[in-house]
Specification:
This protein is an alpha/beta fold. The protein has seven helices and six strands; from the N terminus they run βαβααβαβαββαα. It has one domain: Rossmann fold (3-Layer(aba) Sandwich). The protein has a six-stranded parallel β-sheet, with helices on both faces. The protein is globular.
Length: 198
């Protein structure tokens, strides 16, 4: 019998790094305060940590998939300096109104669809119903809920513009509204949960 593991899914821009609007250059990557330490604490507690990010800049012809990979390689290097790591990076390059025809599709991976989370779950053998999706947009929460995860809104990035009182917490499986990623990890007690469940 396959043993499925709970995981923590993270949106990238506005949660782990600053949202600099269509980021296609590693030089523009800036970690948000406390994010690396929070990820390192999840690593120590044996949580798989997965980035799931919409990257429609590819579909818009602003940068390539290789550029996104370069950004992720640089982000991984920055996190390594803090003793933190991401177990998998997943991104969606599609957009239904893309300038580039190859990426102009209604896909199952662009959030609020749950495709990226489901693909990661298959590859890493993850238990989605025991997992968390942490994001700064309602579409992050929608994707997490559609995949069966519990969700957290952080008030960094676009999260500053979201009115928590207006969220349908039941439909979105919202457990918490947190100031930032570090606050979410601390308030949910995630730094100790996975080891106890293992």
């Amino acid at each position: 019998m396959i043993h499925l593991k709970p995981a923590v899914f993270l949106d990238r821009d506005g949660v782990v790094i600053e949202d600099s609007h269509y980021l296609g250059s590693p030089e523009r990557v800036r970690l948000l305060p406390g994010a690396a330490a929070a990820i390192a604490s999840l690593n120590r507690a044996a949580w798989p940590v997965v980035i799931v990010s919409n990257q429609s800049g590819v579909a818009r012809g602003m940068f390539s998939e290789a550029d996104v990979d370069a950004v992720h390689a640089h982000l991984a290097e920055l996190l390594h300096g803090y003793g933190a790591k991401i177990d998998a990076f997943h991104f969606c390059p599609h957009h239904p109104e893309a300038e580039l025809k190859a990426f102009r599709i209604e896909c199952a991976c662009r959030k609020p669809m749950p495709g990226m989370l489901q693909r990661a779950a298959t590859e890493l053998k993850l238990d989605l119903k025991a997992s968390w999706m942490i994001g700064d947009r309602v579409s992050d929460l929608e994707a997490g809920a559609a995949a069966g995860c519990r969700t957290v809104l952080v008030r960094t990035g676009y999260g500053m513009l979201v009115n928590p009182a207006g969220l349908d917490r039941d439909a979105l499986n919202v457990e918490l509204v947190a100031a930032n990623l570090a606050d979410a990890v601390a308030k949910l007690g995630l730094a100790g949960q996975a080891k106890r469940a293992a």
